[in-house]
Write a structure and sequence with these properties.
This protein is α/β, with parallel strands linked by helices. The chain is built from eleven helices and 22 strands. The strands form four sheets. Strands 6, 7, 8, 14, 15, 16, 17, 19 and 20 form a nine-stranded mixed beta sheet that branches. Helix 1 runs parallel beside helix 11, helix 4 packs across helix 8 and helix 4 crosses helix 11. The longest helix is centred in the N-terminal third of the chain and has 29 residues. The chain binds flavin-adenine dinucleotide. Flavin-adenine dinucleotide binds next to helix 1, strand 14, strand 20 and helix 11.
């Protein structure tokens, strides 16, 4: 029986970053996943490190936007009808959290994490020899109507009051940054305080390689084998059982599979999302991720090609893929950027793990000594992986946390 100071379950960007922070503090660590690091949700995202993010994605507030979603005409969202009764309580809670005062509360409670997101990634990238994936070019949001651009004024004013830069651009200004975009939009906002990566999988893999170089183990195993022992916890890996005092559940959308049998039932839902890679036509290219805000998709330059990512789909995590949003948005996307042949034959699908208040859970598991939680990073798991690693490692090793962890406690759901 092997014994470590800590086991981290789940080798996505969140779990790998936590394991790395623990190993850097001198703990012996085993990172356990049923597959290889970074190959699930952390593989297929848009690669944006959103240091600038203030507000969560809102529930549609005006009737016409809601009707477009309900009638399955919205490119930005889709749902499985049979799944609605199951997800309805979560959707109602999400709607309540879209009230202006709750959105402002999110902005304030999450700022300590978002404000350190880029510097924490950069520090790990430097150690891991991965800075070549980092682009500090911000991201660009496009608006096809004056009305939707005007609706960003409050966010930009608030950002300015916090010293977060944003630049409103006309079509020429935006095309000076991204000459391959066609002038099918009216206005743009450049957020230089964001960064992006050209290969999210390679970033997680580089952090995992650094972890091994520090003497930690990456093992293959099923997290559902987690059991309490007399002295702590045990997990069965292919290499044999591993004992530990402290265990971290960083399983993203799969966290409930391990937590429910332990009696921990937190209200997590998933927002599924898809991507497809395209070769750009001719000499076309992008320097940074670009969001077509009203249509609700992102095009991001990746090593694999131009990655087009979709908005949210409400469906069971394990239900078969239904990438119908592409049918709705491809004509407008092709209008904006010269997308050529597809690189792969099938779209990729992943599940953003989301709580209704859009905040992750980071901290102790209620009623289970030695068990720690780090999941539910929603639209920002790539962004927040390293900063989550620092915060949880601070808490687990008894150091003074760099920020107040109370807003991320599991107990906020009343458990
Ligand atoms: C289309 C799309 C676009 C996105 N764009 C962005 C973006 O631009 N910026 C951003 O910050 N975020 C973005 N996100 C969100 C981000 O990708 C996620 O929040 C993040 O990847 C979650 O990371 P994680 O480590 O928690 O989960 P995961 O990466 O899913 O890792 C969980 C791990 O647990 C393992 N696992 C599951 N079950 C078991 C088991 N029983 N035993 C052992 N191991 C198990 C899995 O194999 C997996 O490796 C996007 C997401 C999507 C879907």
């Amino acid at each position: 029986m092997a014994r470590t100071d800590a086991i981290v379950l789940g080798a996505g960007i969140v779990g790998t970053s936590i394991a790395l922070h623990l190993a850097k503090r001198g703990l012996s660590v085993a990172l356990i996943d049923r597959g290889a690091p970074g190959k699930e949700t952390s593989y297929g995202n848009a690669g944006v490190i959103e240091g600038n993010t203030l507000f969560p994605h809102p529930f549609p507030r005006d009737f016409s936007a809601l009707m477009r979603v309900a009638l399955k005409r919205a490119p930005e969202a889709n749902y499985h009808l049979s799944f609605l009764p199951q997800v309805a309580p979560w959707l109602l809670a999400y709607r309540a959290n879209s009230a202006p005062e709750r959105r402002m509360e999110f902005a304030q409670l999450m700022r300590p994490l978002f404000s350190r997101a880029i510097s924490e990634h950069e520090a790990l990238m430097q150690e891991a020899g991965a800075t070549r994936y980092l682009r500090k070019e911000g991201w660009l949001k496009l608006y096809r109507s004056e009305k939707s651009f005007a609706a960003t004024a409050r966010e930009r004013d608030y950002a300015a009051s916090l010293g977060l830069p944003s630049r409103a651009l006309d079509v020429d200004g935006a095309r000076a940054l991204e000459p391959s975009l066609a002038p099918v939009f009216r206005q743009a906002v450049h957020w230089p305080g964001a960064a992006s990566v050209s290969n999210p999988l390679a970033v997680t893999q580089a952090y995992a390689a650094r972890l091994v170089a520090l003497g930690a183990f990456i093992l293959t195993g099923d997290a559902r084998s987690l059991r309490r022992t007399g002295t702590g916890w045990s997990v069965v890996a292919e290499e044999g059982p591993v004992d530990t005092k402290e265990v971290v559940v960083a399983l993203g959308p799969w966290a409930p599979d391990v937590l429910a049998p332990l009696g921990i039932r937190l209200p997590l839902a998933v927002k599924r999302g898809y991507h497809r890679h395209f070769r750009p036509r001719g000499n076309a290219g992008l320097v940074r991720p670009v969001v077509d805000a009203e249509i609700g998709y992102c095009i991001a330059p990746m090593e694999q090609g131009i990655r087009l990512t979709t908005g949210a789909e409400f469906a069971g995590r394990d239900a078969p893929p239904s990438p119908v949003q592409f049918d709705r948005l491809m004509p407008t996307a092709r209008e904006l950027f010269p997308l050529g042949d597809e690189v792969e034959t099938k779209p990729w699908m992943g599940s953003r793990p989301c709580f209704a208040d859009s905040r992750p859970v980071i901290g102790r598991a209620p009623g289970q000594p030695g068990l720690w939680l780090a999941y539910g990073h929603a639209h920002w798991g790539l962004t927040l992986g390293p900063v989550t690693g620092r915060l949880l490692a601070d808490m687990m090793t008894g150091a003074t946390p760099f920020c107040d962890p109370a807003p991320y406690r599991a107990e906020r759901f009343g458990s």
